[in-house]
């Protein structure tokens, strides 16, 4: 079992719709959770982080964390073509630990 | 520019040659990470430093790879006797304490 799992996609959503990206992790000791966006050929760019169970909203983005189910998700409201990218889920087990990444989900927002 | 800086951005080398990459982290960030990413995969952890101390190395890291962070500032990653399988994007990230990590632009290595 991979430490951090994501559906590779592509996930295709129409412009203006809600995109839902999911991630599961295997280490119950994980404490910090991050979503990064990566455009083709570019480096990952931090979108959101979440440390506590529940929802965290930032503009069009909402991160959701359920530690009991070892599940973290990212919702993108009012999806735009510029949101088309690969979204990487990353998990940290402690304040100083490395981040373990999933393989990423490719999102395509269609006109 | 106050972000994480990596040099060079691109490197093409012949198999068997040694290469060295440099990473300049955000100045107040005491943690520095090296990752490698191949096409279609997420970043794979290589090693990390807290200040000048190298605290963790991936089990997957061959002894051809070595990293340093003298004086806890910039870091270098050296690959000796490069192989075609070393072709990848090498990413550096820095992090203030336990908070979010910020990536540099990466160094794309092609071994021919």
Query: What string gives the helices and strands of chain B in order?
Result: EEEEEEEEEEE
Oligomeric composition of the shown chains: heterodimer
Strand content of chain B: over 45%
Profile the largest sheet of chain B. Answer: 7 strands, mixed
What would the average pLDDT of chain A be, to the nearest integer?
93
Helix content of chain A: under 10%
Structural class of the secondary elements of chain B? mainly beta
Beta content of chain A comes to over 45%
Q: H/E series of chain A, N to C?
A: EEEEEEEEEEE
Instruction: Give the N-terminus to C-terminus distance of chain B in angstroms.
Output: 33 Å
Could you give a short account of the major beta sheet of chain A? 6 strands, mixed
* Percent of residues in helices of chain B: under 10%
Computed structural class of chain A: mainly beta
Number of helices of chain A: 0
Radius of gyration of chain B: 13 Å
Topology:
The complex is a heterodimer of chains A (about 110) and B (about 110).
Chain A: E1 4-5, E2 11-14, E3 19-25, E4 32-38, E5 45-50, E6 54-58, E7 61-66, E8 71-76, E9 85-92, E10 99-101, E11 105-110
Parallel strand pairs in A: 2-11
Antiparallel strand pairs in A: 1-3, 3-8, 4-5, 4-9, 6-7, 7-8, 9-10, 9-11
Chain B: E1 5-7, E2 10-13, E3 19-24, E4 31-37, E5 44-50, E6 53-57, E7 65-68, E8 75-79, E9 88-95, E10 102-103, E11 107-111
Parallel strand pairs in B: 2-11
Antiparallel strand pairs in B: 1-3, 3-8, 4-5, 4-9, 5-6, 7-8, 9-10, 9-11
Main attributes of the structure:
heterodimer, A: 111 residues, mainly beta, five-stranded antiparallel β-sheet, 54% strand, B: 112 residues, seven-stranded mixed β-sheet, four-stranded antiparallel β-sheet, globular
